[in-house]
Amino acid sequence: MEGLPRLEPDEGKLSCPVLRGESASNDALLPYYDQIGGSKMVHAGCWSHAERYFSEAVQLNPQDPMATAIVARIDELFAIDAEARCQGLNVEARHALRQQQSRPLLGVIQKQIEIARSTALPGGALAKACNYTLTLWQKLTRFLEYPELELSNNLAENSMRPVALGRRNWIHIGSAQAGPKIAAILSVVESCRRLKFPVRDYLAAVLPGLADCPIQQLHELTPAAMATQRC
Questions:
Q1: Range(s) of the domain holding residue 71
Q2: Which residue of 16, 106, 118, 120 has the fewest CB atoms within a 10 Å radius of its CB?
Q3: CA 87 to centroid of chain Cα atoms
């Protein structure tokens, strides 16, 4: 992807989770996510979470034209990526489509949300949806800079569901330092599953020579790169 930002071998992506609840302390946690990961970590927001807040506002007040319009616009945003999948576009082509269609649509969405926030009741569901989305706006629009980013982290959350279900059994794993290491291992495992690449085969191919691999070549050993080599 010449001319486009790329995630180098020592970089990564982190989708910000939704912060549920009504206490002010939850909103105060938003800046915390900027401290997660290394200095080159790319933080991205999840549009499914943002849309969920506005959908809840619509459920509480189905006659609210502002919330309804915002949900419709966000659906259009997802429809653009859905069209890219239907056409089988690669990352570069999808990036071009996003620049042409998603970028101007985001300008419309942002303006609608700002207008809605200026008229919504401060403690209401619509105001909370607006505040959440505008606070994360830079992260929510990061997919325009990094073409490989998805609009939603639902796939990642669903793949992590077994971890959430089993964590009570894994409390003995240890310390805060273990968290990033476990996350890295699970990321590799779930990437292999998504690519239908047997985890055992992947580890058998990568681990024996990993210690002698130059860091500049690590990107050739990711599950995605190895799966391409198998084709």
A1: 12-156
A2: 118
A3: 22
42 and 119 inside one domain = yes
Dist CA 70 CA 120 (whole Å): 13
50 belongs to a structural domain: yes
Cβ neighbourhood burial of 2 (10 Å; 0-12, 13-18, 19+): exposed
Question: Does residue 197 share a domain with residue 99?
Answer: no
Whole-number Cα distances in Å, 35 to 31, 47, 189: 8, 21, 25
Of the candidates 154, 169, 172, the residue with the CA atom closest to the CA atom of residue 15: 154
| Residue 23 to residue 176: CA distance in whole angstroms | 26
Per-residue confidence in pLDDT tens, the chain, 231 aa: 444 444 443 444 444 443 333 322 334 445 555 555 556 677 888 999 999 999 999 999 999 999 999 999 999 999 999 999 999 999 999 999 999 999 999 999 999 999 999 999 888 999 999 999 999 999 999 999 988 889 988 776 776 666 666 666 666 556 767 777 777 888 888 888 888 899 999 999 999 988 888 888 888 888 988 888 876
Residues 16 and 116 in one domain: yes
What string of H, E and C letters represents the secondary structure of 101-114?
A: HHHHHHHHHHHHHH
C-alpha distances in Å from residue 169, one per residue of 105, 174, 185: 45, 12, 18
